[in-house]
Amino acid sequence: MVLNPYRPITKAVIAVAGYGTRFLPATKNLPKEMLPIIDKPIIHYLVEEAVASGITDIILVTRAGQHIMEDYFDNNLELEHVLEENGKTDHLKIIRDIPKMANFIYVRQKKHLPYGTATPILVAQNLIDKDEAFVYMSGDDVTLAKTPVTKQLIDVYEKYHPSAVLAVQEVANEDVKRYGTVKYRKSPLIPFEIESGAEKLPFGQAPSNMAQFGRLILTNDVMIEAQKMNTGKDGEFWMIDVLNALAQQGKSVIAQPIEGEWLTTGDPLRYLQTTFKFALKRDDLRDDLLAFIKKETS
Amino acid sequence: MKQPVRKAVVTDGGYATRFFPVTKTVPKCMLPIIDKPITQIVIEECMEAGITEIILVATEEGRAIYDDYFHNNSQHIHEQLVKQNKPARFEKIRNVYSLPNIIVIAQNKNLPYGTASPIISALPYIGDEPFLHVQADDVIVGKSTCKELVDTYLASDDDVMAIIAAQDIPNVDVTRYGIVKLREGTQNELDSIIEKPTKEDAPSTLVSFGRYLYTPMIKKYLSPDKKTLVKTMSCGWLTQYGEWRSSIKC
């Protein structure tokens, strides 16, 4: 038997330190990731995806004013007591199961660091060993897939052990400017290796229509590059720029097209669309909701 | 001369198990409609009725969250928006400040479960004056129901003790709501509210919802000692004394 020299991936860093100002005033004191998709906070879906992919440690990179999220993943004894008194055993189980999902670790994003999608990994670096890869998720993005998207990425990582794996999905021409996009190497050693990546370029200037979203597997190579804190567009510190730098150095960075669907909650319209898609997947809501929309729009 | 209506008791005191698990830590009416908490939408409706003081009744944990929402000046967000050169977005937070005086209290835990309990909890903050009771989980689209209740009150007879809002919904599923029965021979006087009747037993298609106006005359029916009354009757204690106003089109 050959020993696998690589440690299994057990940690996920989830970036939840954003301000969600497109959702003001609701996000005045509610972290954006605590907004519900129907009846479950966005962050809950992310944790479920991570756990279903074998993750046991969830590292949430937060900021001041987000204790509601920490309380959510903790026990709420007062509420448990009320439910117990009223014999609501099903509801009791729902809320008691939440703290058991994973080991939750919170670390605050520091103000002196640049703002951007790459910053949270610097915040979490002391919680990750140099010889382990980890999952990095952004609190904006949710997915619908048979095999959890994070699991798909872990599988790719374990096959090739690149410096990084990022999830990508093809987007329409008019949406290209909203995202980081990638250019594939012409004759790669490994499938879907990228030559470059760039943040928020308009269609025509962007490398392709393959847009990166908030699911990645990262290694110490990425940490080392991120130390440089090279900021890019709008003075922000972008993950795609870090990955671009690695690819330019000849390191292997895989942009894996995913099976399933990536949905974002970054602005009110897409948040509503995502909520709608999730509702259509629910037997208790689908038919009544469709009938309602038909009536309201006829 | 009628006293002006200056105060509203806004209630979000339940545990909202139908929205579990998100309501494990987020009070139900802090959930947004798109980007604004339901409670704020409801308070804005109260403002249209000339209300200048809100007594918001929440659960103990909800109290802290609401207090923070309505009273914290969120300088950390301001700082961030200035940094990102989007200071205009802070206006939406400033609007929260321009809301009327809001006192957030926790519902008295010693009271039984029921719609009258939050009102009893709020009584110490209400003097000898009429007030609105607004259940935050009902939202109005269009004209402020609170304003309609206040206008109806100002034009009503002196012996009217309470006014409740109702909406005539011809094909309503009566088994889900409180259905209004009118006093025989009257157009707008309440006889009783039948909670979730069967289709056969429903006295009308007038649906009662979470907007009420009470005069000080009702206080004697709201004693915390009358626990059974509060528990079993919810707003049934109104039924012999209230005036039901004409149906409201939303």
UniProtKB/TrEMBL annotation, chain A:
PANTHER family referenced in this protein's UniProt entry, alphabetically = UTP--GLUCOSE-1-PHOSPHATE URIDYLYLTRANSFERASE
Write down the top EC class of this protein: transferase
State the protein's name.
UTP--glucose-1-phosphate uridylyltransferase
Q: Name one GO biological process term.
A: UDP-alpha-D-glucose metabolic process
Q: Where is the Nucleotidyl transferase domain?
A: 11-274
Q: Which family does it belong to?
A: Belongs to the UDPGP type 2 family.
**A GO MF label:** UTP:glucose-1-phosphate uridylyltransferase activity
Under catalytic activity, the entry for this protein gives:
alpha-D-glucose 1-phosphate + UTP + H(+) = UDP-alpha-D-glucose + diphosphate
| EC assignment | 2.7.7.9
Any one Pfam family here would be: NTP_transferase
Gene3D superfamilies per the UniProt record, alphabetical = Spore Coat Polysaccharide Biosynthesis Protein SpsA, Chain A
Keywords, A to Z? Nucleotidyltransferase, Transferase
Can you tell which superkingdom this protein's organism belongs to?
Answer: Bacteria
TrEMBL record, chain B:
UniProt keyword annotations, A-Z: Nucleotidyltransferase, Transferase
Family under the similarity heading: Belongs to the UDPGP type 2 family.
Q: Which InterPro entries match?
A: GalU_uridylyltTrfase_bac/arc, NTP_transferase_dom, Nucleotide-diphossugar_trans
Q: Give EC number(s), comma-separated.
A: 2.7.7.9
Among Gene3D superfamilies, the record links this protein to:
Spore Coat Polysaccharide Biosynthesis Protein SpsA, Chain A
Q: Show the Pfam families listed in the entry.
A: NTP_transferase
SUPFAM superfamilies named among the record's database cross-references:
Nucleotide-diphospho-sugar transferases
Top-rank taxon: Bacteria
- Domain (Nucleotidyl transferase): give its ranges: 7-223
- Supply the name of the protein: UTP--glucose-1-phosphate uridylyltransferase
As its record notes, the protein acts as a catalyst of: alpha-D-glucose 1-phosphate + UTP + H(+) = UDP-alpha-D-glucose + diphosphate
Query: Would the keyword Nucleotidyltransferase turn up in this protein's UniProt record?
Result: yes
Single GO biological process annotation from the record: UDP-alpha-D-glucose metabolic process
What GO MF terms are annotated?
Answer: UTP:glucose-1-phosphate uridylyltransferase activity
Q: Does the keyword Nucleotidyltransferase apply?
A: yes
